[in-house]
Design goal:
The protein contains four helices and eight strands, in the order αββααββββββα. α1 runs antiparallel to α4 and α2 (41-48) packs across α4 (147-186). Helices cover 34% and strands 45% of the residues. By secondary structure, it is of the alpha+beta class. Strands 1-2-8-7-6-5-4-3 form an eight-stranded antiparallel β-sheet. It has one domain (2-18, 28-182): START domain (Alpha-D-Glucose-1,6-Bisphosphate, Chain A, domain 4, 2-Layer Sandwich), CATH 3.30.530.
Amino acid sequence: MPGTLLLALALAASAADVAVRSSAAGEASRLEAEFTAPVPAPVAWEVLTDYGELPRFVSSLRESRVLRRWGGGCLIRQALRLEWWMLRRTFSVTLRVRENGRDEVSFEDEAKGDVKRYAGSWKVAAEKGGVRVRYRLEAEPKERLPRILVRRALADQARLSLEEIRREMLRRMAAKREIAERFRRRR
């Protein structure tokens, strides 16, 4: 039960723990976001690199399918739904993902189907009491859309997605603690 209470308290605080900044980068939109989570770095890494399961806990992802894996990377097909005010679009990307050690994931769309540019990274840094996760994205849709709408939609969606990712990290940590507690009690 103590793990459940801690998880509930951490979930309630999650919205305040995600910071998102957006800006223009020429015709593209640039996002920088971060959050902290009271989990060890391996749990954060496990969630961020669980590519095939991302749609289970990230509501904007309609698809995330690993097409091919190789040492230190993979190719992933994703479809993401972007909604904000009157903007409602689904964008598909084929991401070439590079895992740099166990603390950075970088990605870039190589198909150039729905977007001119879609590239970014995730960085995980251990700190006292948990991890700090940083996210960067530069995106430019092919379709001519008002930049302010795209920037606002991306920022709002990033905030929600990072909150969902953070919640999944907390959920997995609580599950690991529960399993450890059950094992300890059996001894």
